[in-house]
Amino acid sequence: MFEIRLNAALIALAGLLWLALFAHAPAPIASKHDMAHLGALEDAFGRDRASQKALLSLTEAYLDGAHPQLAVAALRSAQPALLEEPAVTHQLARAYEQSGRLVDALATADLALARCARVMGAGALNTQLPRYACTERTLAKLDTHKGALERMVRWGIVDPRVDPRAQRAYDMAFRRARIAVGELPGKLPKLPSN
Question: Which are the contacts of 54, defined by CB distance < 8 A and separation ≥ 6?
């Protein structure tokens, strides 16, 4: 009986020694400066959950720091009226994309584009404008993002963070956007006049 206890104690001691040698603290998420900046952004959004500027700044920092789940959580905790803003909906689509949820990202990008187009169309038709805002630049950015997401989903990309085809999808979407706004290199030929 004494031998069993001694063996158990020695095995436990060996396990603790192995754990002490190989266990280490996880790598920090960011530097102290980055954490202070992130903390300030979180505080600003915490003080005013209706501030679109604070929400976009915070989620942009999360996305830049490769923490899309935190961006999704912050966006989902915002005031419901903020989630109607095409710029905020676009951030949610980006966060879904970075977290590997491409189908959700595409659906969210489609919603953002539809809302933005509604604002642009209402202004052109002199009908009542929705309470959210959008510009031509935002509309082009949303259309480009949606085009890239559509290709990624069609191509069966599972994780855009590691699949090189994701960059190809963006390259093709940007090419289409440059053609649409006429930013081709060189001069375009003149059309013959009648």
Answer: 41, 44, 45, 47, 48
